[in-house]
Amino acid sequence: MFGEFPRTKLLTICLLMLALFPTSAALADDPTGVWLTNDKAEITIERCGADFCVIVSKPAKPGLKDIRNPDPELNGQPILGMPLLRVSHVGGQNRMTGELYNPFDGKMYQGSLELIGENELRVRGCVLKVICLHEDWVRIGS
């Protein structure tokens, strides 16, 4: 079928091409890893089922506590290990949406994560989808 070109060489070339040129979709939509926020906190994003979970892996200041949570059982808990967001791929290939918890005011917001580069992530929180704030994070680990 391939004439004089040996199949093993063809297979080797195909495997090399796959190794050297991975699909951009596989790389572009994977937010897992450790991210650095503007205030120097470290946030870990990991898979949790079909979704992604976002947790505080290193607070900006040691010993910070969630003192504004309206739930008495959660109020006063350490920020370290706190889940901030659970998102799923709903908004497109590089955009994920969910609910965002803000420990600075103890409220939940409509939130989204959007990969704007291989190592840049835009985190957005909105009130009524009208008033939105965002912050860009930088990937510092995988």
Structure description:
The model is unreliable at 5-27 (pLDDT under 50). The chain has two helices and ten strands. The protein has a single domain, classed as Beta Barrel (Lipocalin), CATH 2.40.128. The protein is 13% helix and 47% strand. It has 142 residues and is mainly β. The longest helix is centred in the first third of the chain and has 14 residues, at 7-20. A hairpin with a 2-residue loop joins strand 8 (107-117) and strand 9 (120-127). The chain has helices at residues 7-20, 24-28; strands spanning 33-36, 42-48, 51-58, 65-66, 77-78, 83-88, 95-102, 107-117, 120-127, 131-141. The strands form two sheets. An eight-stranded antiparallel barrel has the order 1-2-3-6-7-8-9-10.
Shape: globular
Helix count?
2
Number of E strands: 10
| Average predicted confidence as pLDDT | 79
Secondary structure category: mainly beta
CATH topology type: Lipocalin
CATH class: Mainly Beta
Count the domains: 1
First-residue to last-residue Cα separation: 44 Å
What is the CA-based Rg, rounded? 20 Å
Low-confidence segments, given as residue ranges, are 5-27
For the largest sheet, list the strands in their spatial order: 1-2-3-6-7-8-9-10
Oligomer: single chain
Order of helices and strands: HHEEEEEEEEEE
How would a textbook summarize the main sheet?
8 strands, antiparallel, barrel
Helix content: 10-25%
What portion of residues belong to β-strands? Answer: over 45%
